[in-house]
Backbone:
């Protein structure tokens, strides 16, 4: 295994516990629109860009469904839930960041979320200064599961894919890393590993602290 020089973090469900409040917000907003929205529906959207998520929703609710019509309501509801419950950092994240800094490795975030959302979450949790840079889903042509966002992260860090490591919680993120020829460790959140994840992941661990041994 070539030494790791760049660690690429996904954000939602990997670095922050945002998938559960996001699901609750979607469920509430969809109910107001007369739709039943289940956790299984939500799992299909995890790790996807906005346009890809809309395709999934159209497959479930019909071609006339347009997410942009409810996006403002969703964003406000999600914000309200986060303000009420707080934005939690996932277990082991700070321990892993400490280890990466001690090793002098580069680290960044590559998330399907908007640049504004990434910044807000980092500022809210006090982690803004702990990453060298971040790449948002609206900065690449094709979002996850396409590999573009991870290739862009390597380019910005001036590192080759075989010296990088991606940390993800979703199958779509894993597919993106796999397509970019970057090793990917899965830390499951709402999605438990299926056979494809077990085959394509470099490793599967229960929390971020267990990634430390892979960079030492």
Residues:
């Amino acid at each position: 295994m070539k030494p790791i020089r760049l660690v690429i973090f996904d954000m939602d469900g990997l670095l922050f516990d945002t998938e559960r409040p996001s699901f609750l917000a979607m469920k509430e907003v969809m109910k107001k629109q007369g739709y039943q929205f289940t956790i299984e529906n939500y799992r299909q959207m995890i790790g996807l860009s906005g346009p890809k998520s809309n395709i999934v929703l159209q497959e479930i609710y019909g071609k006339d469904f347009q997410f942009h019509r409810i996006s403002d309501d969703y964003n406000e509801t999600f914000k309200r839930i986060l303000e009420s419950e707080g934005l939690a950092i996932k277990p082991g994240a700070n321990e892993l960041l400490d280890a990466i800094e001690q090793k002098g490795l580069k680290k960044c975030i590559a998330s399907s979320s908007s640049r504004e959302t990434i910044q807000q979450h980092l500022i809210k949790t006090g982690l803004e200064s702990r990453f060298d840079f971040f790449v948002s889903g609206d900065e690449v042509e094709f979002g996850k599961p396409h590999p573009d966002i991870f290739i862009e992260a390597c380019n910005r860090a001036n590192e080759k894919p075989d010296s990088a490591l991606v940390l993800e919680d979703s199958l779509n993120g894993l597919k993106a890393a796999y397509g970019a020829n970057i090793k990917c460790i899965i830390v499951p959140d709402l999605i438990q590993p299926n056979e494809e994840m077990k085959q394509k992941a470099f490793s599967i661990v229960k929390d971020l602290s267990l990634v430390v041994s892979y960079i030492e």
User: Anything to note?
Assistant: The chain is about 45% helix and 10% strand. The beta strands are 6-9, 106-111, 133-136, 164-168, 183-186, 203-204. The two ends are 12 Å apart (CA to CA). The chain has two domains: 6-17+89-215, 19-85.
